Amino acid sequence: MRTVDLGTGLDEIRDNPRGSRTINDFGNEDNFNTVLGITYRFSNTSSVTVDGGYRNRYQEAFFDDYDFGGLFSEFVETEIDVYSITPRFNITSQLLGHSHHLIGGFDFYHYQYDSIRSQNKSVADRPKNILDHYQNSYAIYFNDLINLNKSTIMDIGMRLQHVKLQAKDAFDPTAPGAFGNEAEELNRKDTEPMFNLGLRHYLNDGVSIFALGGRSVRFTTVDEIFQVNPATFLQEFSIIDPQTASHIDIGINYNSQKLSGALTVYYMDLKNEIFFDATTFANINLDPTERYGIELSSLFQIREDLKVIANYSHLRSRFSKGPFSGNDVPLVPRNTATVTSTWNLFENLAILSATWSYVGEMFFANDPTNTFIKKIPDYNLLDLSLTGSWYNWSYSIAVNNITDEKYYNFGVNSNTAPRYNGYPQPGRNLFISLKYLFN
Questions:
Q1: Are 183 and 235 in contact (CB under 8 A)?
Q2: Is 439's pLDDT higher than 80?
Q3: Per-residue DSSP letter, 331
Q4: Which runs of consecutive H residues, i.e. helices, occur in 35-185?
Q5: What are the tens digits of pLDDT across the range 14-66?
Q6: How far apart are CA 76 and CA 177, in angstroms?
Q7: Residue 50 backbone zone (phi > 0: left; psi -120 to 50: alpha; other: beta)
Q8: What is the C-alpha separation between 36 and 54, in angstroms, rounded?
Q9: Whole-angstrom Cα distance, residue 341 to residue 160?
């Protein structure tokens, strides 16, 4: 975090974006992921696929105490294991005079979360808290794409998901730096339905109109619930309700050999939006919110080897109920835009791309009242990349933020003074990768 004080003129984001007041803090992460799948085809129109997966993530982090000589420091070691089994079927058939493409299946995910919290790495064998969480997720679903006639397609789907969560904490009051408490065990079950229904009608070969609606759900994850209660200042496993969203989209598409584009207007009603409160450092459910806006996208095929893609979005995200009703939701820009030009220089051996992106201003993370005297400023980025592939080899050379724009996309304002803290984002940077695909 870097500080800006509008009263004194201090601006660490501009003058020293790489600086830090927490020079001893660090975080490391290792990831492993593997998936094994098998598909059996009954015919050209039906098949069954079974995938099994395993993911592992190991993290360690240290948060030093710079005010009391390390008394309240914390060293965290966390391991997350995820096991999954996802069988599904795929059928194309004729039924009642209509063509159907039906996909359905069952998803099972088991999340195991183990975390050890100690004062520092030297006393990691005497942890203050040992967290043991697990989460099981079961879901059944189907989606059917139906050709109603030569000009009209209907898309209908449903999903029913059940999530079971158990979280335990073992607290040792004799461990170094043990000033907290043992969080009460949490056992929770949630079941939520989801659905989608859409229609697309082709007015001619190049123009179609569409409308779709649906309901989506986001469940809290195992690593989002262990936190300090902002009212009691005690450690707890917070009860965070599933986030639900109902939406409707209406739009028009145009496609031709040289030009394609889409115009979409949409509305989304959200309940219990899961949000990180930067004031209390806790995940919470927001009061009801809504999002509505317009999206424009286009593709210009200038030549066979040269194309330009442009996108623009105008979004209003605001509280629809509660004490902040009518105010903008923090950290959501109203305007975003991107333009990407891609030139295939030599048959995929060398593809040159340039991307300009714009993100509009937004309110600070802890400013739901929309009253702080400043917003997180808008910013422009320009990226350039050269990519290519040859047989099993592929490469990428990218220069990001060519203009070395000084910007940040997360910030927390003071409630008592004209000052704020922001997370500076990387300036001009170079990324190079070389990959080989084993058959």
A1: yes
A2: no
A3: T
A4: none
A5: 899 889 889 999 999 999 999 999 999 999 999 999 999 999 999 999 999 99
A6: 13
A7: beta
A8: 9
A9: 41
Q: With CA atoms as reference, report the closest residue to 314 among 340, 290, 296, 288.
A: 296
Residue 176 makes CB contacts below 8 A (sequence gap 6+) with 118, 119, 120, 123, 126, 128
pLDDT tens-digit readout, 98-154: 999 999 999 999 999 999 999 999 999 999 999 999 999 999 999 999 999 999 999
Identify the burial level of 243 via C-beta atoms within 10 angstroms of its C-beta, where 0-12 means exposed, 13-18 middle and 19 or more buried. buried
Contacts 24+ apart (CB under 8 A), 234-237: 234/180, 234/181, 234/183, 235/129, 235/169, 235/171, 235/180, 235/181, 235/182, 235/183, 236/183, 236/184, 237/167, 237/169, 237/183, 237/184, 237/185, 237/186
Scanning the structure block, which residue is given the tokens 């080897």? 305
pLDDT band at 347, cuts 50/70/90? confident
Q: Look up residue 88 and give its two tokens.
A: 């599904």
State how many domains the chain has.
1
Distances from the Cα of 222 to the Cα of 35, 135, 165, 170, 411, angstroms? 22, 7, 8, 16, 26
Give the predicted TM-score (pTM) of the model. 0.88
Both tokens of residue 266? 């949409």
In angstroms, rounded to a whole number, what is the distance separating the alpha carbons of residues 344 and 259?
18
Q: What value does the mean pLDDT of the chain take?
A: 95
Give the model's pLDDT for residue 85: 98
Amino acid identity of 155? D
What is the spatial distance between Cα 398 and Cα 15, in angstroms, rounded to a whole number? 26
Residue labelled with tokens 């803290």: 421
Tokens 């007015």 sit at which residue?
Answer: 203
Residue range 323-327: average pLDDT? 96
Distance between CA atoms of residues 327 and 334, nearest Å: 13
CATH number of the domain encompassing residue 28: 2.40.170.20
Query: What type of residue sits at position 406?
Result: K
Tokens read off for 201: 């009608």
Q: pLDDT tens for residues 401-433?
A: 999 999 999 999 988 789 999 999 999 999 999
Domain of 235 in residue numbering reads as 2-436
d(CA 212, CA 398): 37
Phi, psi of 12 (to 5 degrees): -75, -25
